[in-house]
Amino acid sequence: MKGRFSWWNEWVKRKHAYAQATQKQMDTDRFNSICAGTGLPNIHQKSTFKFKDVADGAARFLGHAPSGEKPYARIYTRLGNPNTEYLEKILFQLECEHIIDNALAKDEKSPTIASLVFASGMAAITTIIMGFVKPGDALIVGNVYGCTDSFMRFLQNRFGIEILFTDATNTDNIKQLIAKHPNVAAVFIETPDNPTLAVCDIEAISKITEAHEAMLIVDNTFCSPYLQQPFRLGADVVIHSLTKYVNGHSASIAGAALGPYEFFSKDVYPVYKDFGPTPSPFDSWLNSLSIQDMGVRIEHQCATAQKLAEFLENHPKVNRVWFPGLKSHPHYEVAKKQMRYGGTIISFDLKGGYDAGVNMMNYFARPDTPMELAVSLGSVISYIEHPASMTHSAVPEEDRCLRGITNSLVRLSVGVEGFSTLSKALDASLKL
Ligand SMILES: Cc1ncc(COP(=O)(O)O)c(C=O)c1O
After folding, report:
1. 412 φ, ψ (degrees, to nearest 5)
2. Residue 114: CA atoms inside 13 Å, Cβ hemisphere, count?
3. Nearest C-alpha to atom 10 of ligand 1 is from which residue?
4. Which of 56, 319, 329, 350 could form a Cys-Cys staple with 408, CB 3.0–4.6 A?
5. pTM of the full predicted structure?
6. Is 321 close to ligand 1, i.e. is its CB under 6 Å away?
C-alpha cells in the first residue's frame, strides 16, 4: 500500500544509491579488521550516568549527544549503554560499511541506517515488528524459527494481524500473496531456513516487496554478516540472534537489528525505550570481545562443514544431505549468488529411520565424543540434534514430513574441531 511508511521514498532512493552492491560480500581482511577493532571499552556495568550539569542532562534527554557518542546512550542503560553502543557500531560497519562509504562520497548529511542491539534475537524480532505493525495489516512469513512462528500466531490471535505463512523459497508464492493482499506491510524470511537449509532469493523477493511498499525483513542468524549481507541484496531490515555466531561460544543471549534510520529513530526506538529489551552491559562487552575472531572462526567452520557435507553425502548409511554448498542442494545457485560459502550447518537423513537418529544422538550425548547433544548453533563446539524429537517436536508429523523434517533427519552445527576429528566421530556413530 503506497504511503504506508513516511520514510519509505527517501529510504528506497538511498537503498538504490548506496546499499545495493554488485559485490555481494565485504573483503575478508577488511571484515576481520573491523571485527578485531581497536577500542573495546571497559565494562560500564551501571544503570545510570552522571550528567555534567542541568544543560547536559536536558540536552541528552533531547537526544543531543557530544560527537562520537550515540544519542541516549549515557542517560540510563535501558535507553542505551556505551558497551552496547560499541557493539552496535561494529555490527553497523560489518553489515553496512559500503552504505556509509557511498553516502559519505555523495556528501549525504543525515544518517541512512541505524543499528540496535537487544537482549535476545527474539527481542530484536518482536521490537521491530511492534515498531510498525497496526490493526488491519498482514505479514507474509516464510519458514521461520519456532518462537518467531509462535509470536506471529500471537499477533494473529490476540490482535487480528493477518499472518500469511508460505514457502518463501518459491518467490512466486510471495508475488501471488502480495498481489492478493494489499494490506501486506512486511515479508519476514530466514535464509537458509531451519533445519532443511532451503534458500530464499533475497534479491528477487526485494523487487516484489519494494513495488508494494512492504518491508523485507531478513533474519540473517544462520549466516552472520560474514556469510551473507542482505542490504547488498535489497533487504530493508536485517536481524540477528547474536547468541549464535557473534557470541560463538554459547556464553550469552543477545540480538541485533539494523534498518532505515528514519524508521528506527521514529518508530523502533520508542518501542525499545518503553518495552525495555535492552542487553546488559556485560553481555554487550562479552559479545564485543567474542566478535573479534568471528570471521576467522567461521572461515574454519565453513571449510570443515563443506568437507563433512561431502563425506556424509557419500556415506552408505546416509540417505540425503541438505547443505547449500553442495551441488545437489535444490537452491545451490541462489546460495552461491548470495552466500560467501555454504555455511556451517548440515542436515542429513539417516537410512535407519527414527531409531538410527536416536542412536546417533545418544552416542553424542556421551562425554567422550567431540560434539554436544544440544540445539544451538554457530558455536566453536559442534552441536548435533534430532529435530523430530527436539526443536520441531511440536510440529505435527504430517506437516513436518511435508517440510522435509523426517523422523530420521539430523541437524549438525559444525564447530572448530576439524574435519578428521568430526568425520571419525560421525562414522563411529553411523556404525552403531
Ligand atoms: C533463526 C533464528 N532467529 C532467531 C532466534 C532467536 O534468538 P535468541 O535465542 O537469541 O532469542 C533463533 C534462535 O535459535 C534462530 O535460530
Report:
1. -120, 125
2. 17
3. 121
4. 350
5. 0.97
6. no
